[in-house]
């Protein structure tokens, strides 16, 4: 009997350590809105690798913002997520430029380091707005949604250049809807 209790205790400790390790490195988030269409859709559920390291151009990331969660935002959340939501929004965007890069948006086109960026993932042919940043500062990155006409992203002063410390992690997998289950590019 004593041996069986010890085995149960070992199993419980191992399970708790494994659960803690997994949740430390991996988390999930739900997509709200259409700013990442056609890559991501409203209500997609994503798996995030919780690391600020190795974030590259083209990666899809989850970002902490200073944007306050309002009552309309809370309506979309279930009771558990409402309690976990905090006071500010997290957004899902694609990294377009990293520290040291230059970026220009002109006449509907995006130029990275002086060369037109070819983006097969963008909804539509043109990117609205105009912008020129000679050099992305150290520790910052420029992000945009794939649905450029509706995306609130680095082109807007409310988001601006994203501090690397505000990155929650890189989106690595979509698990819902099951019909689109798989790794994201």
TrEMBL record:
Alphabetical list of SUPFAM superfamilies matching this protein: LexA/Signal peptidase
GO biological process, one term: signal peptide processing
Localisation: Cell membrane; Membrane
Domain Peptidase S26: 5-176
Name of the featured protein: Signal peptidase I
Enzymatic reactions: Cleavage of hydrophobic, N-terminal signal or leader sequences from secreted and periplasmic proteins
Organism: Keratinibaculum paraultunense
Catalytic residues in the record: 35, 93
Entry-linked PANTHER family: CHLOROPLAST PROCESSING PEPTIDASE, SIGNAL PEPTIDASE I
UniProt main location, coarse: membrane
Keywords on record: Hydrolase, Protease
Family assignment from sequence similarity: Belongs to the peptidase S26 family.
Membrane topology according to the record: Single-pass type II membrane protein
Enzymatic class: hydrolase
Top-level division of the source organism's lineage: Bacteria
MF GO annotations: serine-type endopeptidase activity; signal peptidase activity
Presence of the UniProt keyword RNA-binding in the record: no
PROSITE patterns: SPASE_I_1, SPASE_I_3
E.C. numbers: 3.4.21.89
GO cellular component: plasma membrane
């Amino acid at each position: 009997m004593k041996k069986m209790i010890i085995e149960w205790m070992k199993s419980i400790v191992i399970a708790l350590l494994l659960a803690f390790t997994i949740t430390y490195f991996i988390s999930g988030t739900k997509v709200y809105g259409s700013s990442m269409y056609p890559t991501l859709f409203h209500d997609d559920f994503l798996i995030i690798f919780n690391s600020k390291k190795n974030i590259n151009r083209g990666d899809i990331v989850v970002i902490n913002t200073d944007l306050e969660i309002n009552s309309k935002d809370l309506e979309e959340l279930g009771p558990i997520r409402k309690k976990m939501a905090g006071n500010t929004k997290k957004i899902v965007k694609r990294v377009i430029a990293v520290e040291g890069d230059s970026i220009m948006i002109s006449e509907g086109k995006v130029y990275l380091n002086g060369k037109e960026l070819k983006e097969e993932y963008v909804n539509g042919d043109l990117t609205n707005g105009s912008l020129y940043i000679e050099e992305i500062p150290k520790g910052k990155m420029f992000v945009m949604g794939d649905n450029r006409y509706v995306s609130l992203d680095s082109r807007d002063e409310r988001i601006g250049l994203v501090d690397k410390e505000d990155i929650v992690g890189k989106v690595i997998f979509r698990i819902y809807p099951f019909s689109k289950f798989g790794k994201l590019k």
